[in-house]
Amino acid sequence: MDLDIDIEHWPSDDWDALAHRVADAAIAVAPELGNARLSASVLFTGDDNVHALNREWRDKDRPTNVLSFPMMERSDLIALEPEGPPAMIGDLALAFQTCASEAEGKSVSLEDHAAHLILHGLLHLAGYDHVTSEEDADKMEALEVAALAKLGIADPYGDRDL
Length: 162
What we know:
- With about 160 residues, the chain is α/β, with parallel strands linked by helices.
- The chain has helices spanning about 15-30, 45-60, 75-80, 95-105, 110-125, 135-150; strands spanning about 1-5, 40-45, 65-70, 85-95.
- It has a four-stranded mixed β-sheet, sandwiched between helices.
- Strand 1 (about 1-5), helix 1 (about 15-30) and strand 2 form a beta-alpha-beta unit.
- The radius of gyration is 15 Å and the shape is globular.
- The protein starts with a strand and ends in a 12-residue tail after the last helix.
C-alpha cells in the first residue's frame, strides 16, 4: 500500500515513518490491504481541521481523534486484482490536540496512540467496523491488538489475552 502523508500542526517527529510501519503491521493482520495497487492518504492536522471535516461529512460538530473516509467497498477491495491502475482506498485525518490529550489521559506516548489511531483508520478503510455489532467490534479490536503487538505496542483495550 502506498501512503501519501501530509503533516501539518504536529510536532516535529517522524510521523511519515510511523505511518508506514503501521501500514506494514496492518497488512500483516489484514492481508487485503497488501495489494500493491492500493493507496491511502494520511493527514496529520489540528483539531480545527478535523472538527470542520467531522461537521461537514459526519454532521458532528466537534473534533475527534481520527476520521476515516473510505473510497472503496470491502467487497471491491477483496476482489481487487493485483494488476492494474492505482486504486485509492481512502483518506485518514488525525487531530493533534485530541490525540495528544487522549495519549496523556491514557498515559501512553503520543507516538503509540497515533499508531493505534492510524491502524484503526486503516482497518476502517478496509471495511472493518466496530459500530454495527459486538462481534464486528471484537474482530476489529483483535486485529488492532495483533498489529500493535507487531509494533511492540501494548494492548490499548487492556482486556485481551492475545
